Structure formats: C-alpha cells, structure tokens
C-alpha cells in the first residue's frame, strides 16, 4: 500500500521544505510515502469561494485513482492522540487499499463533492494552521505513528 499526502499548492518556505523532506525520507524507511501537489489556481480574484472550491475539486478528482481510500484533513474531522492515530494507521494498512490518500484542501477547504468522496475526516487541531504548517505536522505524525507501531523510542508516553 502506498500512502500519499495530496495538497493544493506548493510549499514555498525553504525551512518548511527542508523539514518536510526530512520527515518524508524518514517515513519512507517504513512505508512507501509521497507528497503530490495539485497546482494552485491562477486568477482567483474574480471567483467566489464556492467557485474556487469547485475548480479545485475538479483537479483533486483528476489526481485520485480507483480504489483510493481518501481521508480529508479537515478541522471538523476526528481528532486522535498519537498512539490512537498509529492504531488507526495500522488498521488502514491491514485493510490494504491500493493507496491511502490524505488530502489538504485549498484556502477555503473542500467543495461538497470532495466531502462526498472522502471516506473519513481527520483533524490535526481545532486551531487554524497554515497549509505549510499542516504539511509538516502531518508528515511528522505519520513518522511518529510508524515508530510507535515498530516499538521505537521516538514517542514517549
């Protein structure tokens, strides 16, 4: 099973990029993992919030593959402690979807059509976080989950 973090728009801050790349490298020691970027929409000034979300939804749908298990990273989703998230990951990996796809939406979140496609929703925090920060935090949590599942000392409880 391949695990993918699907994101709208590039990360531009070199410090975030370096940290994200380090955690992606670490995660790949345990499971096949990658980040796929959907290009940010151009010329959005004349688009309403709903129109922008729908255009992003079209691009998101093109990036998905049959058999994907889509998990939306959304502030209204379920929250987990790290150990609980590791157990959740273990169950998803045992179910063997072709790809486990985690999705970070655009600046306004997801269109209703993407919410309808999502199998589950997970929240990393009730607080609002930047899209760049979410990417780093989430990749670190995937790494933490893998170390927990492998009984390694990265996580202390």
Brief synopsis:
This protein is of the alpha/beta class and 157 residues long. The protein has 5 helices and 5 strands. A 5-stranded parallel β-sheet has the order 2-1-4-3-5.
Give an account of the 3D structure.
This protein is an alpha/beta fold and 157 residues long. The protein has a domain at 2-31 and 51-62 and 75-95 and 104-146: Alpha/beta knot (3-Layer(aba) Sandwich), CATH 3.40.1280.10. The protein is built from 5 helices and 5 strands. It has a 5-stranded parallel sheet with strand order 2-1-4-3-5. Helix 1 runs parallel beside helix 5 and helix 3 crosses helix 5. The two termini are 28 Å apart.
Largest sheet: 5 strands, parallel
What is the CATH topology classification name of the domain at 2-31 and 51-62 and 75-95 and 104-146?
A: Alpha/beta knot
| Percentage of residues assigned to helices | 40-55%
Shape: globular
- How far the N terminus sits from the C terminus, by CA atoms, comes to 28 Å
The name of the CATH architecture of the domain at 2-31 and 51-62 and 75-95 and 104-146 is 3-Layer(aba) Sandwich
Would you tell me the overall average pLDDT? 93
């Amino acid at each position: 099973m391949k695990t993918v973090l699907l994101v709208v728009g590039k990360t531009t801050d070199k410090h975030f990029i370096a940290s994200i790349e380090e955690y992606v490298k670490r995660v790949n020691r345990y499971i096949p993992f990658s980040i796929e970027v959907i290009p940010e929409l151009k010329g959005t000034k004349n688009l309403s919030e709903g129109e922008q979300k729908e255009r992003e939804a079209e691009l998101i749908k093109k990036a998905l593959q049959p058999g994907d298990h889509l998990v939306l990273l959304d502030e209204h989703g379920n929250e987990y402690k790290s150990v609980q998230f590791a157990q959740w990951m273990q169950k998803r990996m045992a179910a063997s979807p072709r790809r486990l796809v985690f999705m970070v939406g655009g600046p306004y979140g997801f269109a209703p059509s993407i919410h309808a496609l999502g199998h589950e929703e997970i929240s990393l925090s009730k607080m609002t976080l930047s899209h760049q920060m979410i990417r780093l935090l989430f990749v670190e949590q995937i790494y933490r989950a893998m170390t927990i599942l492998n009984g390694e000392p990265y996580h202390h409880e």
